[in-house]
Amino acid sequence: MFTGIQLGGVNFVIEEVKLVYNVGKQVLKYQGYRIPTKADLLEAKEFILKMEKSASVSNMVQAAKNIPKNSWKRGALISAELAGLFVIGEQLGRGNLIGYKD
Known about the structure:
Keywords: ATP synthesis, CF(0), Hydrogen ion transport, Ion transport, Membrane, Mitochondrion, Transport. Helices cover 71% and strands 4% of the residues. It is mainly α. Among the domains are: 31 residues; 34 residues. It has a two-stranded antiparallel sheet. Strand 1 and strand 2 form a beta hairpin. The longest helix is centred in the last third of the chain and has 26 residues.
């Protein structure tokens, strides 16, 4: 079974995972994060269900009407840029401009 790259008799992958785990523990402790309790999960579930009930097409249309024109233009420009990057990535991945190489 492959368990990683052996460097000087030390399993490199396992050592890196241990490092990330320990650093992550310290960051979470420093930031004051904790594992969510059952009460936290129930509160989140109730919030989502409440949002789902209050969501309606008319509310979404009204919210869309309140967005300034500059934000729409910026969003359209960013969307076009992302679509272009996706197309370029697809062409590079296929190794061909149109279709796939045989």
